[in-house]
Design goal:
3-stranded antiparallel β-sheet, hpI Integrase, Chain A, DNA polymerase, domain 1, 378 residues, elongated, alpha+beta, 3 domains, single chain, 4-stranded antiparallel β-sheet
Length: 378
């Protein structure tokens, strides 16, 4: 047994679990030869079922060396990628609706025109390099996403034996640097922006900032989610195929409890009284028709408000960025930031640890106080 896989012996056949969590099934046939399943399995039960089928074929004299194999090594990339999307999981969970939609668009608009009619095994590094050279020119983020998706799909194909190796070998092609550095709103700018928003949406902007909440979390926020001074974030809403869909948070870490700063609690209570219908399922920030607030409806007001604050560069999501930066300035640790923001990685939380325009001066003043306290001028 190696450090990368775990083997389990059975009365018939063998199951191996790889570090990725997927399972490989194999057995010794009646001819004494060793046979493996043509694919790995996401669930152990699926591997067991495959072995059970082979055992039944042997018992009924229906077995042949090709039993349990398939012709996927000859499948076209378009066919394989469609199958890949249907069975793709992240940490055991199916793809989120919006992620699946994004992948489908990348395949349709940037990948399948080149590789859709080609067999998976025929795609080589040279073909990938030629495709990448002309893919989504002028749109570096889309280009990086397309390359990353192609690499992931072909990496799965290689792990399943459908391709010899992953032909995506361009270093750094799946990464992109943010061109525009986000500048958090100051407290003065935030005050102007909130004041210029309609009264029924002011709390939405305040919670986006002070509680670092995402638009989708706020649009799905309901009366039952406010428990005392805590907001229980368990759901979000996303726009997919032109409609709003309720879904679980982006990751397991996204399901979290966020404490509302005390100075906002009076505003929360007033909003619940004036702008939220009775009943636990009532949305805090509904559209005029009582359904989920569309992003376009929010931005209709937000654009004017940010102009009044002289921050035409500010996006609504940047208010979450503002709140995260304010939390970091209180001395919150990375672990505390990750918990409040619903992030599962340190890297995601690190990007919010900005230095405000006047923060360096405060640090310098604090250093002087330390020096004076010690009686040293060095």
């Amino acid at each position: 047994m190696t450090t990368t896989e775990r083997k389990q012996r059975r009365s018939f056949g063998r199951l191996r679990q790889f570090r990725s969590g997927r399972w490989k099934a194999s057995y010794t046939g009646p001819d004494g030869m060793f046979y493996e399943a043509p694919t790995t399995f996401a669930l152990k039960q699926d591997g067991e079922a495959w072995l059970t089928d082979r055992r039944r074929e042997i018992d009924r004299n229906l077995w042949s060396p090709s039993s349990g194999q398939d012709d996927r090594p000859n499948a076209l990339f378009a066919e394989y990628s469609e199958e890949w999307l249907k069975r793709r999981t992240v940490k055991g969970r199916p793809l989120k609706d919006r992620t699946a939609e994004h992948y489908e668009k990348l395949l349709e608009q940037h990948i399948n025109d080149t590789f859709g009619h080609v067999t998976v095994r025929a795609i080589n590094p040279d073909a990938v390099r030629k495709w990448y050279a002309t893919c989504a020119i002028g749109a570096p983020v889309i280009r990086a996403h397309a390359y990353s998706l192609l690499s992931t799909i072909l990496g799965t194909a290689a792990s399943e034996g459908i391709a010899d190796t992953n032909p995506c070998t361009i270093s750094g092609a799946g990464n992109t640097e943010r061109r525009v550095k986000i500048r958090p709103a100051t407290l003065a700018e935030l005050e102007i922006l909130v004041t210029e928003m309609p009264e029924r949406l002011r709390l939405m902007a305040l919670l986006a900032a002070w509680c670092a909440m995402r638009y989708g979390e706020l649009a799905e926020l309901r009366r039952k989610d406010i428990v005392g001074n805590v907001i229980q974030i368990r759901r979000g809403v996303v726009r997919v195929d032109g409609e709003m869909r309720v879904t679980s948070p982006k990751s397991a870490a996204g399901s979290r409890d966020v404490t509302v700063p005390p100075h906002l609690m009076t505003l929360v209570e007033q909003h619940l009284e004036k702008h939220t219908r009775a009943g636990p399922e009532s949305l805090l920030f509904p559209a005029a028709n009582g359904r989920h607030l569309q992003p376009s409806s929010l931005y209709r007001y937000f654009y004017g408000a940010r102009d009044k604050a002289k921050r035409p560069d500010l996006r609504f999501h940047d208010l979450r960025h503002t709140g995260a930066t304010l939390a970091a300035q209180t001395g919150a640790t990375l672990a505390e930031l990750m918990g409040r923001l619903g992030h599962s990685t340190v890297a995601a939380a690190l990007k919010y640890q900005h230095i405000a325009a006047d923060r360096d001066a405060q640090i310098a003043a604090a250093l002087s106080q330390l020096a004076q306290g010690s009686g040293s001028s060095a």
